[in-house]
Structure formats: C-alpha cells, structure tokens
Write a structure and sequence with these properties.
Layout (H helix, E strand, L loop, with lengths): L1 E12 L2 E13 L4 E5 L6 H8 L7 E6 L2 E2 L5 H11 E4 L11 H11 L4 H14 L15 H13 L5 E5 L7 H18 L2 E6 L2 H4 L4 E6 L2 E7 L1 H4 L5
Parallel strand pairs: 3-8, 3-9, 6-7, 7-8
Antiparallel strand pairs: 1-2, 1-4, 4-5, 9-10
The structure holds adenosine-5'-triphosphate.
C-alpha cells in the first residue's frame, strides 16, 4: 500500500548541508496502523511530509497504491493528494469562520461534490467521531480534543488510501489523548484506512500495530507493537 524505498534527504542551512534522513526503507500494508517514533530532531516530521507528498526527497522512491509520488508532476501530485492522502495536524488547522460541518465538508468542495452529498457524508463522519450535535458550532466553541476529532473527520471524508498524522495528540492532556487514540483505532477497524502516526511518546506508539523507530535520521527498529505482541485486538 505504502512503500518508502532508499529515501535520503538533506537540508541546506547557513552552516552547510545537513543530512536529515539516510537510506530509509519502509513497507506499510493496507489497513495497518503504524507509529513513527523518535526523539526531537530524529527526522519524523520530515519523513511524514515526504510520504504525504508535501516535499520531495533528494533520492529514493515513495509509492502509494503502486504510484511513485516523487516522480509525479506538481499538478498530478496535487490531484493524487486530494484523492488518496489525508492529513491530521497537531494544531488541528480548522478554518475559524466555517462551522464544524463546513470544515469537514471542505475537501469535497474542492472535488466538486454537490452540497447535499457533502452534508450527508460530513454528518455521518461527525456521528462516528461523536460530534453530530456540534455540527453547526464554530471551532472556537469546541475543546482541543473535540477540534482534533473534527480534523480527523475532515481527513477521512475523501476516503483516502492513507492518513498521515503529525503528533495528533501533542496538544492534548492524557485523558483526551487516550480518547483520540481510541477513536483512531476504531476508525482504522471500521473503515480499514491505513494510518501513519508520528509521535515522540513510546506509550502512544505502542498502542498502534507497528512501531518504526527513527534515530538521527536512520531507521533503527521496525516491528510489531507491544499491544499486538500481547494479543490485543486493535
Ligand atoms: N527546513 C529546514 N531546514 C533546515 N533544517 C531542517 C529543516 N527542517 C528540519 N530541519 C532539521 O532536520 C532535522 C529533523 O527535523 P524533523 O522536524 O524532521 O524532526 P522531528 O523528529 O520531527 O522533530 P520534532 O519531534 O522536534 O518535530 C532536525 O535536525 C531539524 O533541525
């Protein structure tokens, strides 16, 4: 479903060239829930942005649904991202002047889907994340955890092949973090959507199915999480 092959990347700054990722190889199966774990500066966000087509690597291939996004033209990639890729940000990134329902519908506006169909899909997803009663409120009227649930619903509305999440619980307290993780696990089970989730917290990573650990830009470990080893039904 998702393959990263021999990806390396460098940044240039005032000091010169900084290697950030070195020869990364990853394979994620359809419907898998994968954590990218590593300490600050290990390269997690850079790798996530490369996999989501937000940047191009210096070398290597990134295949989603058997298509190499590195070699796509900008136009083709923009279209591919709209239909195949969802993204959840740490800071939710909701539009303040749109209602909750309008925020969830937005990706379908860009796809030219008619309003009644958009509304129907948005309300269904808001029901799945437990926010159907809040659909006509604005983001500022919701708690952080509720806003993140809206952003999760928005990421799913185009039925993408894979959803990338950058520290989705990074701004939340422990109890709300647990709620968000359990919603992601439930959606992964029900919709068979593939998730790749960046975190610097081992406790969060171990609740996914697979944990990939980065250190100083290198992949140092990859395997089943403790939850899966212990036989939990994720
Ligand atoms: N645009 C940039 N220009 C130069 N260096 C960068 C740039 N973006 C990131 N870096 C460097 O690349 C390295 C990896 O950064 P990255 O943000 O991918 O790490 P991370 O593991 O996600 O860290 P964090 O958990 O703190 O977000 C860091 O050393 C960072 O300073």
């Amino acid at each position: 479903m998702l393959r990263v092959e021999q990806v390396s990347h460098t940044f240039r700054n005032a000091q010169g060239i900084v290697p950030v990722l070195q020869d990364i190889n990853i394979s994620v199966g359809k419907g898998e829930m994968v954590a990218l774990l590593g300490s600050s500066g290990s390269g997690k966000s850079t790798l996530l942005h490369l996999m989501a087509g937000l940047m191009k690597p210096d070398t290597g291939k990134i295949l989603i649904a058997d298509q190499d996004i590195v070699r796509m033209s900008e136009n083709r990639l923009a279209e591919f991202r709209r239909t195949h890729i969802g993204f959840i940000f740490q800071a939710y990134e909701l539009l303040a002047n749109l209602t909750i329902r309008e925020n969830v519908e937005l990706p379908l506006v860009f796809q030219g889907i008619r309003p009644s169909r958009r509304k129907q899909k948005a309300m269904h997803l808001l029901e799945q994340v437990g926010l159907v009663g809040k659909s006509e409120l604005f983001p500022s009227q919701l708690s952080g955890g509720q806003q993140q649930r809206v952003s999760i619903a928005r990421s799913l509305i185009t039925e993408p092949s894979v959803i990338f999440a950058d520290e989705p619980t990074g701004n939340l307290d422990t109890r709300t973090e647990e709620e968000i993780i359990s919603i992601l696990q439930q959606l992964n089970r029900e919709m068979d959507t593939t998730f790749v989730i960046v975190t610097h917290e081992a406790e969060v990573a171990e609740q996914m199915q697979v944990v990939i650990t980065l250190q100083d830009g290198c992949l140092v470990k990859s395997g089943q999480s403790k939850a899966v080893e212990q036989g939990a039904r994720l």
